[in-house]
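Z., the sequence and structure:
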Amino acid sequence: MITINILADAKFPLDRAALRNHLTSVLAKYRLTDGVEMAVSVVGKRKMTELHMLYMHLPGPTDVLSFPLNDPADDRPFMASPDGILRLGDVVVCYPVAVEEALEKQVKVDQQVQFLAEHGLMHLLGYHHE
């Protein structure tokens, strides 16, 4: 079973089922179809600005941040969870920034949120960009 916990304030209207389905299909491309868990938080600009400064030491909000549970920079051996669940980590999407980007791209906000969450998921899976 794939568990995708979505945490979002009611003031951020998004299609949770579509987001969950999209991320599940991305995981399936990497043959992750069972025993996987992750979380997606949808936040406002104030919270994202706080997280961006705290973890990236950069001012202002960003569109998406990822917090993997398995840090590749950590040289300690990876310990599999005793229950066999692969816990990937957390993705945080800034809803107001997603709205701005959706307007620029002329796409639906839900589509942009899905794109950003997928981008964050790819970081959780170990894919990084320069």
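The chain has four helices and four strands. Residues 70 and 78 are 7 Å apart (CA to CA).

Let me know what you think.
H.
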